[in-house]
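Hey, I was hoping to borrow your eyes for a little while. No rush at all, and the record is pasted right below.
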Amino acid sequence: MLSQKSIDIVKSTAPILADRGVEITTVFYKNLFTAHPELLNLFNSVNQKQGRQQTALANTVYAAALHIDNLGVLLPAVKQIAQKHRSLGIKPEHYPIVGKHLLEGIKEVLGDAATDEIIQAWADAYGIIADVFIQVEIEMYKEAEEQENGWGEFKNFEIVDKVVESDIITSFYLKPVDGSAVPTYNPGQYITIRLAIPGETYILNRQYSLSQAPNQDTFRITVKKENEMNPNGKVSVYLHQNLQIGDTFEVSSPAGDFYLDMESTRPVTLISGGVGITPMMSMLDTLSKNSPTRPVSFLHGARNNALHAFDKDVQQLMSAMEDTTYLAFYSDENKLLTKELLAENVLANGDIYVCGPVPFMKAIIPTLYELGFAEEHVHFEFFGPAVSLEPALA
């Protein structure tokens, strides 16, 4: 139980964290990986280089300071982060290491302003916050392991098929090496794949949405090949160019809190940009098989037709449904998903799912709110660490 004095001290630091949070988390990660380079096996180094992980952690620490007297407010965010932690193999023993270097980061950046009293208050607060994460994640590991055909952390999968979906996007069908079936999952969830790439010092982890309806036979991930000069392209280029049918790598159990509500009968609007179409394909495939009478509107943006994955698949799935709308927008032809088109094609009184590149998300989601769609009905997922929808706050 955190004392009232500690609560007051932590809350009083919120303005400082708002101002210098990213500076603190940048120092934290630098010191953490210097002292514990083995943790680079768990982190996506690209998110580090782009500053997204530092920003996401700074936002989390700031939110914790604001709500330290009512952590229940943060539980949805905790569960979202915990899903990623579970899919990466974060364990209870990692939390003391993180806490030590986070406190040292606060002290290093704030200097004398970080008094012993402030550091102790944050140490107490961190212990409570870490315990919340640990307990949530223990339960998630248990749930993943105990479900039918489940496992707790990673197991080996084999590529059993490789299908080109567009000029830059390819699907990989995966089966467990041990011959078992695969567990079910919620349409929209992702898996982590773990690769040891020749020439790379550390294991590389990447999270990819499952892009088909759940079945007991295979997982399917659909991967955009990034530019080879882009640091983010290491895994995608290796998958496209080096891995073939018969090759294996490690895979986590499905995770994530962005998924289709299958218990609802409300209309569904799917809005995606680029490779953000992947979780939508799992949702649409599931709707086509299990809820063909549920109204669906699918709005997808791509640069051009050659880069548009799953166009024919969407049309085929929708042909088995009763009430559907499908529109594609190509930016190379100056056809964009405008506010007017959203107003005309997003289904009223329904659930809206959005996924795509960060600029796409920052354009679409606030526009949906401006049009009067309720926030509780707008569901979205960023690939990688969450980013603020407000550019000024990011």
About this structure: The chain has a mean pLDDT of 91. Residues 262 and 336 are 30 Å apart (CA to CA). The two ends are 32 Å apart (CA to CA). The first strand starts at residue 154 and ends at 164.
